[in-house]
Write a structure and sequence with these properties.
314 residues, alpha+beta, four-stranded antiparallel sheet, 11 helices, 16% strand
Length: 314
Amino acid sequence: MSFTSDVKKEIIARCRAEKNGAMGNLASLSAFVRTSGEIGVVGGKPTFFLVSETENVAEYFMQIFSEAFSTELFITHATRDKKSGRDKLVLQCASAHTGRVLEGLRLLKSDKISVRESICKRLINTDEKKRAYIRGAFLGGGSCMLPTGANATSYHLEIVFFNKRTAQDFCDLLVEMELIAKLVERKETFVVYIKSKETISDFLALVGAENALKKFAAFLEKRDEANRDNRARNCMAGNADKSAIAAVKQVVAIRKIEEKTKGKDLSEELLTLAKARLKNPTASLKELAEQLGVSKSCINHRMRKLMEIAEELV
């Protein structure tokens, strides 16, 4: 099961446990229609249909739809999404009730035919209704993707809308709940998205997906630990490379001294170090210090002296 499916399953369980109430259900239903359906006018009468690729989401909204309007949403047919390979359920209600339903969901203008693009303020005039609307929107058109692969770093939560004004209003609604999201147009849809790990965590907490939030936090911790380990390995590798380069330069310098002076002008300490370095060209200065029974700082000082002597030789 995908992380998105986990989140949606938990949202539904939380909604059923909390019992949103009539107005909360209306807010959730209205958002669900905005993100999963299409509203239009046929023969001068408003009409709509809904599409859901998640069976338990369809069942949940069929239940609260029945409770809200004393009529049924029914499955007309199923289609297969070519991209995901999953079946999508198409839902409708009887045409005789469509106008009443859309009015109840505050999705029609006062002429009772034209579709309202903005989110009706009466649907979201309390924090409980706002939360219900956000939940409904995610259940209808939301997804949350965790990065996969060793080099993947992008966290992404999005909700897809079918008109720009609704998407803009939804961004404003998130701001009211202290969540910052961005809006982008994608083909013929408008996508509200979040990429901040902290904001995604806050979103999951807001909709009540506590188990998903724990899973997300554990995923972040594991990934951060892996990143720390990678940085440590890279640092160690970088230091090893620097040590190797320094050792090569030291060997070259000592051979230059040997070639030019045969080591005659070197003190006993410097000559001993020069021989040790040529004998152990890949050893670290710490290892050389241990072999010669002196401190690392002493070896550093003597090696700098050898390098200076080599630089002075023409």
